[in-house]
Amino acid sequence: AEARPRVWVSQPLFGDIVARLGEHFELDAATDVTIWSPDAIADRLHDASGALVTLNERIGAGEIASATALRAVANVGVGYDNLDVAALHARGIVATNTPDVLTETTADMAFALLMAAARRVTEGERWLREGRWTQWSFDTLLGHDVHGSTLGILGMGRIGQGVARRGALGFGMRVLYHNRSRLPERIESNSRAAWVDLDTLLRAADHLVLVLPYSSATRHLIDAAALAKMKPTATLTNIARGGLVDEDALADALSHGRLAAAALDVFEGEPSVNPRLLALRNVVLTPHVGSASLATRRAMASLAVDNLIAALGHGPRAGDPPTPIGAPAAGGI
Ligand code: 8YV
C-alpha cells in the first residue's frame, strides 16, 4: 500500500481531537510541551505533508525550504504573526487559522483584565495576602470606574466588536474605536461604537483595549508619544500581541503616574517578562491565556484539525478548509 501522508503536530493538544488526524494520516505528534528550534522545525517538516502548529513555532521560508511534500499549515490561534504567509503561499502551501471560535472567550478575558486593572483587583489580593490589611479604611486601593466611562478599542475585528458590545450593553460605556478602515454602519450600530482617529481615541479613552494584529506596521504602535496622549487616569489592556507596546515606555508612564494601570496578557519577549513591568504594583500580568477556557481551546484544536484534514484533501470538506488565511485581515482579530 502507498505510504500515508505524514502530519506533524508541534505541541500536545487534546488527545481525542488529535487522534482524528490519525484516521487519515501518519501522525508525528508531540507528546510533551516542546521548545522547537528553527532547525528542529525544518527537520520535522522535512517529510511532512501537513503541520498543526501553535504561536510557539515560527514557520518561515527557512523552516519550509526542504519540506518538498508540505501542502498545509494549520495554526491553532487567530493571530498568525508566527507564520510567514507570503512564503507559504509562494510555495502553494495552504495556511489556516482559528477565528470565531475564540471571539467571545477572548472578549471576556479583555474585560476581566480591564476591570482588574481599573479596580486594582490583583493588587488588592497581593496586599491582603501580604498581611497588610490591618484595619479597614475609607481610602484603601481607590481605583477608577468602569461603568459609564469611555471605552477605547484599537483594532475592531471580531474580538474588538465583542469587547465593544460588553462595554456598551453591560457597563453603559461610551465606545469609541479606531481601525484602519471604518466598519459598515450595521456593524457599528451592533457594537454601539463610533469610529475616531487614533489621536482622538488615545486622548478620549478612560480604558483602552488593544485587539489588533501584530506586524511590522503595528510594532510599538503604543510608544512613548502615544502614551503621552492618554489620560493619567486611564488604563491600558493588551490581549493581542506584546510587540504592539513599547514596554519600556509603558513602564516609564506607569511609574511616573502618567497612566493609572495596565493589564497585559501578552509580552514582547514572552514567556519572559520585562522585569520593569514585574516590579510595578499597577500592572496586571497573565500568561497569554486570553482564549484559555476548556471549551474554547477544544474548539480551536478541533477547527485546526478540520482545516488540516480538508486542506490535505480528506474528509467532508476535502479541498475546502473552513478557515483559510487569505488576504491580510481588515485591522482587527
Ligand atoms: C492562542 C492567540 O492561544 O489566537 C491567538 O491569536 O494568541 C491564542 O488564542 C495561541 O495563538 C495558540 O497558538
TrEMBL record:
Its EC number is 1.1.1.-. Coiled coil: none annotated. SUPFAM superfamilies: Formate/glycerate dehydrogenase catalytic domain-like, NAD(P)-binding Rossmann-fold domains. Keywords: NAD, Oxidoreductase. PROSITE patterns: D_2_HYDROXYACID_DH_1. Residues 37-315 form the D-isomer specific 2-hydroxyacid dehydrogenase catalytic domain. This is D-glycerate dehydrogenase.
